[in-house]
């Protein structure tokens, strides 16, 4: 699906859900709150927020939480994802790889919660040469 296939009202709705999800973030150490929202092909939206842990390596990013929520609900293909944060940051490398497991061509909408600025990119552009199942040795 191309960015052009997302209507402006769909983008705005997705962004609102990501911003709302950000309000639920648990970030007592970094104070960097992130929300993510995945739009399904029927326009339903599933969300996630970052959840930090004192053992930093156990922290969960908002994008992965949203993706896990979608997979747990039986959805493995999505129309788009929005990520809301101060600065409108792109997903980290681990989240890019995690999302690529399911859909490399997904549009990623990054929104700055301070000024509302948005950037849209394809995940495949954010993660060129993604590691995938073809990178693994054959099981036969």
Q: N- to C-terminal separation?
A: 34 Å
Mean pLDDT: 94
CATH homologous superfamily title: Cytidine Deaminase, domain 2
Order of helices and strands: HEEHEHEEH
- Helix/sheet category: alpha+beta
Instruction: Please tell me how large the radius of gyration is.
Output: 15 Å
Percent of residues in β-strands: 15-25%
CATH class: Alpha Beta
Provide the CATH topology: Cytidine Deaminase, domain 2
Helix content: 25-40%
Q: Runs with pLDDT <50, length 5+?
A: none
- Count helical runs: 4
Give the number of DSSP strands: 5
Number of folding domains?
A: 1
Mind describing the biggest β-sheet?
5 strands, mixed
CATH architecture: 3-Layer(aba) Sandwich
Overall body shape: globular
Spatial arrangement of strands, main beta sheet: 2-1-3-4-5
Structure report:
- The chain is α+β, with helices and mostly antiparallel strands and 140 residues long.
- The chain has a single domain (3-126), classed as Cytidine Deaminase, domain 2.
- Helix content is 27%, strand content 19%.
- It has 4 helices and 5 strands, in the order H-E-E-H-E-H-E-E-H.
- Strands 2-1-3-4-5 form a 5-stranded mixed beta sheet.
- The protein is globular and about 45 Å long.
- The relative contact order is 0.17.
């Amino acid at each position: 699906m191309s960015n052009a296939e997302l209507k402006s009202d769909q983008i705005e709705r997705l962004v609102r859900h990501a911003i709302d999800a950000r309000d639920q973030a648990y970030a007592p150490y970094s104070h960097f709150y992130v929300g993510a929202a995945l739009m399904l092909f029927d326009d339903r939206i599933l969300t996630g927020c970052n959840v930090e842990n004192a053992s930093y390596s156990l922290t969960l990013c908002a994008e992965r939480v949203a993706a896990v929520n979608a997979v747990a609900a039986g959805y493995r293909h999505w129309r788009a994802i929005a990520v809301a944060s101060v600065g409108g940051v792109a997903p980290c490398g681990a989240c890019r790889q995690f999302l690529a497991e399911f859909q490399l061509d997904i549009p990623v909408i990054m929104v700055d919660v301070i000024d509302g600025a948005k950037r849209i990119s394809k995940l495949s552009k954010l993660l060129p040469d993604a590691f995938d199942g073809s990178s693994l040795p054959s099981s036969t």
